[in-house]
Q: What sequence folds into this?
């Protein structure tokens, strides 16, 4: 997790954002913040207001109330500066299908005002990044869904934006294409881009994102670092101890330790796995120090966390809007 | 099979009923009837033939609008499923080709016949107004219904045959153009050649051919009904032959539907093979949207050259005909040949401009690329201007030929052409392209016929005041001994037309575009 000082300007700062469509309150006082060079997940059930928020951030939609800033530029008063620094990939395929990949990227590079001599290099770079070098002269209409999604991603990169807004980039992709897409996103973060990714595929987001915002019925249910979300609130964290082989005295030895409040075995126990609840004030380092003198064949010690799915279900309300 | 066809039929009708736009179109038609009524009242003031004038106007406009609906609305019957990639789903749902053609085309036909039906109560007013009998009104409606059925099924054939709606519209347009244009072209050619130039047998065949094509002509049938009722039939040959040809088109569409659809589903499309284009289009220009619209919307270099060569062919043919008439070579077209060439160029340019205007913005909506465009550092005005340049380039062949013909023959043709008429045409062309662009942001396939309707009304409502400006300015200029009054009058006319007429439409286009982007 990157550390920021107080003076760091957030990549996105959304404050008390509200918007209504024909009497329907799509967003209600939404507030969250995305720091530069992070991957920020934006999750919520259908109709939660994710796309509306993204459209406000990318200046396509003017909000009713609230302030939204992108790298310090207000989206309402300075949309031109905002647009120069962002790349928005909508949740639907919006492509000139009769163009080849190179023509498509060349078109957008020219539209962003890149001179002819620079366009070749930029197109080559984004094609390399998205691993489509060999398909540059293919017609977009002949590409698979996963490839078209890569072309879309390449398109938003041609003007080298600092912030990428990706609305459901993995929807409809097969597992392989999804994994490859996530790899590209990791690479983009490594290159210093800030990525706001709206997605339903929670398992991948939990591994990918540094921070997350959960939106439900137009309201923010959680916004902050992913670690904070995945810890069970109000409870001492659980730890999982795995042994290399079954060890009959292990449970008794563990119960004998002072810092451990409770030892249990998971369902279908094999004598190798134990779940430990530590006492108040005992941390991971203390646990390792306590375990070291014991004669246990330890394979791994890991902190147990909620899955993002559980957090999501806890924070959002049942039903579809 | 019948269940499937009925389901498709009722679904399409229900969709038609649910949206507000079809109802607005019908309301526009009702207003159009009232407009025609007032026109006829003025035209036949003081005579007892107001009803005839009114009804004649309505019928003629309906013929044109039905033809326009053929190349826009009816051609999408099957091709809209191909465009959306849902044709295979219909087949998977167990619908037979007959169920598809019946379900998709009949709903459109019924919906359009409703437009005719909505006019009937008004048009029976014609009988009250005088100059026409109710039998003539009935016969005219039968003639129009037959024409609509023929056009709808011819369009269905194109829709079934072509890979997408654009190609289907092009094919239907060419068929209608040949159908209407061939008789006139043959007659002109034969008249120019004079007797004895061609072998007698060929001359007779070429003389008979226009008559054969005109059997289904609604113009001829309507003329007979309205002006020679004593020799006309309620159900004339036009009615029966139209129904016969319509049935034939329907049968061929149904029987060949599966065979014609297969290559589309496999992805084979014209020049594009193996996912690669054979003809590269070169690097993107400094005006990227102009480049996009020229190459990927309006046909690009290939169609540009084809158009230019097509005009060369027509020009050469007319030069040949003129040579036969004058017995001497003259590279400038004079007299009727020159006028016909200019008229053809003007009509083609008008159609090209309106068709391009209906498609340029809508193509972005259809491909859902409007939000991507909105994110570009280009203002919406710049986007519209660039797109206009791209489309403007594609009509350069026609424009350049107008310039060429005028350069060579302008001296001899100038006294035969009314300057005010040319000015009105230019202004109406600008007006209609703007209206077409605006309507295309609401509806794609109804935009073309609705634009024709709006332009027709605009011609009478706007042309008068427009033409009043140059005459008033000219009069004032003469009073003050100002020499070059004509250019000044035209400049003032163009300026006020833009301020009062075009600018509000441009603002409406921009507003609607932004609404679509936000959606």
A:
């Amino acid at each position: 997790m990157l550390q920021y000082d107080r003076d760091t300007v957030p990549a996105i700062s959304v404050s008390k954002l509200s918007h209504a469509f024909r009497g329907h309150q799509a967003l209600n006082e939404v507030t969250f913040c995305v720091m530069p060079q992070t991957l920020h997940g934006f999750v919520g059930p259908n109709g939660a207001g994710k796309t509306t928020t993204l459209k406000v951030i990318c200046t396509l939609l003017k909000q009713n109330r609230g302030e939204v800033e992108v790298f310090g530029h207000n989206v309402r008063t300075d949309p031109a500066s905002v647009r120069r620094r962002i790349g928005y990939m909508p949740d639907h395929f919006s492509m000139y299908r009769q163009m080849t990949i190179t023509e498509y990227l060349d078109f957008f590079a020219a539209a962003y005002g890149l001179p002819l001599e620079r366009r070749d290099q930029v197109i080559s770079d984004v094609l390399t990044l998205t691993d489509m070098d060999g398909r540059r002269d293919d017609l977009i209409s002949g590409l698979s869904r996963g490839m078209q999604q890569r072309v879309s991603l390449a398109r938003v990169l041609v003007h080298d934006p600092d912030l990428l807004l990706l609305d459901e980039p993995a929807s409809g992709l097969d597992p392989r294409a999804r994994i490859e897409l996530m790899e590209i996103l990791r690479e983009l973060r490594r290159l210093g881009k800030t990525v706001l990714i709206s997605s339903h595929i929670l398992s991948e987001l939990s591994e990918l994102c540094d921070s997350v915002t959960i939106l439900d019925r137009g309201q923010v249910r959680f916004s902050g670092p992913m670690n904070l979300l995945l810890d069970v609130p109000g409870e001492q964290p659980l730890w999982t101890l795995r042994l290399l082989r079954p060890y009959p005295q292990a449970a008794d030895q563990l119960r004998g330790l002072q810092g451990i409040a409770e030892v249990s075995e998971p369902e279908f126990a094999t004598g190798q796995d134990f779940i430990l609840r530590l006492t108040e004030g005992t941390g991971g380092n203390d646990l390792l120090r306590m375990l070291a003198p014991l004669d246990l064949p330890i394979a791994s010690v890991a902190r147990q966390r909620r899955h993002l799915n559980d957090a999501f279900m806890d924070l959002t309300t049942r039903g579809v809007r | 099979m019948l269940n499937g066809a009925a389901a498709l039929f009722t679904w399409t009708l229900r969709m038609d009923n649910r949206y507000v736009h079809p109802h607005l179109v019908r309301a526009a038609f009702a207003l159009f009837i009232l407009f025609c009524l007032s026109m006829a009242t003025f035209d036949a003031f003081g005579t007892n033939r107001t009803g005839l004038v009114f009804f004649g106007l309505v019928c003629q406009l309906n013929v044109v609008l039905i033809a326009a609906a053929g190349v826009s609305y009816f051609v999408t019957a099957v091709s809209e499923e191909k465009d959306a990639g849902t044709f295979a789903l219909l087949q998977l749902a167990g619908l037979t080709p007959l169920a598809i053609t019946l379900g998709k085309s009949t709903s459109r036909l019924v919906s359009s016949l409703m437009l005719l039906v909505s006019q009937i109560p008004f048009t029976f007013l014609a009988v009250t107004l005088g100059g026409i009998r109710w039998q003539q009104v009935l016969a005219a409606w039968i003639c129009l219904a037959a024409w609509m059925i023929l056009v709808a099924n011819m369009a269905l054939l194109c829709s079934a045959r072509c890979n997408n709606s654009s190609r289907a519209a092009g094919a239907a347009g060419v068929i209608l153009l040949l159908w209407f244009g061939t008789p006139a072209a043959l007659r002109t050619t034969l008249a120019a050649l004079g007797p004895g130039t061609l072998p007698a047998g060929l001359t007779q065949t070429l003389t008979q051919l226009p008559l054969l094509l005109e059997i289904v002509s609604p113009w001829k049938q309507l003329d007979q009904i309205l002006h020679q009722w004593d020799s006309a039939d309620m159900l004339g040959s036009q009615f029966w032959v139209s129904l016969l040809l319509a049935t034939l088109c329907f049968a061929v569409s149904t029987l060949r539907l599966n065979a014609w659809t297969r290559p589309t589903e496999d992805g084979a499309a014209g020049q594009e093979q193996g996912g690669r284009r054979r003809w590269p289009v070169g690097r993107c220009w400094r005006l990227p949207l102009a480049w996009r619209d020229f190459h990927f919307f309006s046909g690009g270099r290939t169609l540009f050259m084809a158009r230019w060569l097509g005009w060369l062919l027509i020009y050469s043919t007319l030069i040949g005909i003129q040579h036969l008439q004058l017995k001497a070579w003259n590279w400038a077209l004079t007299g009727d040949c020159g006028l016909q060439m200019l008229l053809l160029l003007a009509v083609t340019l008008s159609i090209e401009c309106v068709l391009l205007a209906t498609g340029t913005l809508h193509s972005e909506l259809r491909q859902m690329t409007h939000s991507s465009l909105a994110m570009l550092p280009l203002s919406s005005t710049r986007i519209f201007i660039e797109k206009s340049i791209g489309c403007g380039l594609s009509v350069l062949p026609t424009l350049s030929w107008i310039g060429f013909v005028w350069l060579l023959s302008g001296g001899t043709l100038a006294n035969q052409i009314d300057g005010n008429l040319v000015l009105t045409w230019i202004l109406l062309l600008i007006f209609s392209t703007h209206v077409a662009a605006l309507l295309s942001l609401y509806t794609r396939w109804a935009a073309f016929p609705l634009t024709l309707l709006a332009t027709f009304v605009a011609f009478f409502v706007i042309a008068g005041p427009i033409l009043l400006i140059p005459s008033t300015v000219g009069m004032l200029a003469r009073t003050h001994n100002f020499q070059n009054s004509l250019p000044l009058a035209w400049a003032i006319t163009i300026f006020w037309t833009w301020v009062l007429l075009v600018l509000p439409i441009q603002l409406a286009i921009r507003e609607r575009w932004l609404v679509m982007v936000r959606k």
